[in-house]
Design a protein that fits this description.
One of its GO terms (cellular component) is plasma membrane. Its cofactor is FMN; heme b. GO terms for molecular function: electron transfer activity; FMN binding; heme binding; metal ion binding; oxidoreductase activity, acting on diphenols and related substances as donors. Belongs to the MsrQ family. By secondary structure, the chain is an all-alpha fold. The protein has one domain (1-192). The protein is 84% helix and 0% strand. It has ten helices and no strands. Helix 6 (126-132) crosses helix 7. The chain is globular and about 50 Å long. 23% of the residues are buried.
């Protein structure tokens, strides 16, 4: 099952590579790749956060076994998203990068999301979990903050274009997933699985 999820999670990257070789990335390939990788980072973030509610609803720990891989794929696509902007959009030009950040502050919000994802990715191993003990759980609660900064990054970007339909859907999904962490709702979901 893990291998299947791993291969499925690589499909968005495979698609981009295929489109790149077949000249299918549209009139602005850099923008296409940047948007695609950003969207998939958000999709995998939603999937990661969905594992706990699914565990509560089904009373099965199978979901939790896939949470780490999904979270790492969110980090992977977020890193690609940033690398494309840094390399293909900014050409590693620090001055231009700073100008872009000042001109488009949503980039700062996206960068904060990526920085916050780093410690979660670095401590995603079982050995790190054992070494950190309770601190591991506290650290990995950063995922809730990341969900907020990521959606703000997306919303801020889309607000400039007055195109909030898609980002609203993601915001509602993330809000519902975060609500599942509220103790009362969490208890209700847990009870439902035992009925």
């Amino acid at each position: 099952m893990k291998l299947l999820i791993f291969l499925l999670a690589l499909l968005p990257l495979d698609r981009l590579i295929w489109l790149g070789f077949t000249d299918g990335l549209g009139a602005n390939p850099i923008e296409f790749i940047t948007r695609s990788t950003g969207t998939w980072a958000l999709v995998f973030l939603c999937l990661t956060l969905a594992m706990t509610p699914l565990r509560l609803l089904t009373n099965s720990t199978t979901w939790i076994r896939h949470r780490r891989m999904l979270g790492l794929f969110s980090f992977f696509y977020a890193s690609l998203h940033f690398a494309i902007w840094l390399w293909l959009d900014q050409d590693f030009d620090l001055i231009e990068m700073l100008k872009d950040v000042v001109k488009r502050p949503f980039i700062t919000m996206g960068f904060i999301s990526l920085v916050l994802l780093f410690p979660l990715a670095l401590t995603s191993t079982h050995s790190a979990q054992r070494k950190l003990g309770r601190r591991w759980a506290h650290l990995h609660r950063l995922i809730y903050l990341i969900a907020c900064t990521a959606i703000l990054h997306y919303w801020w970007h889309k607000a400039g274009k007055n195109d909030l339909d898609t980002v609203t859907i993601y915001a509602v999904v993330l809000l519902l997933l975060l609500c599942c962490r509220i103790p009362y709702i969490r208890k209700l979901l847990g009870k439902r699985s035992t009925i």
